[in-house]
Amino acid sequence: MAPEILQEKPYNAAVDWWSCGITICKIASGENPFYRFTKQELIDSIINDEPEIPKWLDDDLIHLLKKVGSNRGTEI
């Protein structure tokens, strides 16, 4: 769930791109880019941190993930 939704802020279609990027990252790496031990830690991390994208992923995929992850609150 995108940070804007967790914070109950106004949002647009960019949150869907952000969520898609997080899903692609998880599928490609097998790792959760926001893994935390508790639900509250997870929520805090999604709101405050950038996703942890493994450096061993393909450069083009990393570029895509960074692009969709950097568009919080804006249309692509």
From TrEMBL:
Transmembrane segments: none annotated. Gene3D superfamilies: Transferase(Phosphotransferase) domain 1. Residues 1-76 form the Protein kinase domain. Keywords: ATP-binding, Kinase, Nucleotide-binding, Serine/threonine-protein kinase, Transferase. One of its GO terms (molecular function) is ATP binding. InterPro entries: Kinase-like_dom_sf, Prot_kinase_dom. It comes from the Eukaryota. This is cAMP-dependent protein kinase type 3-like. It comes from Xenopus laevis. The gene is LOC121396230.
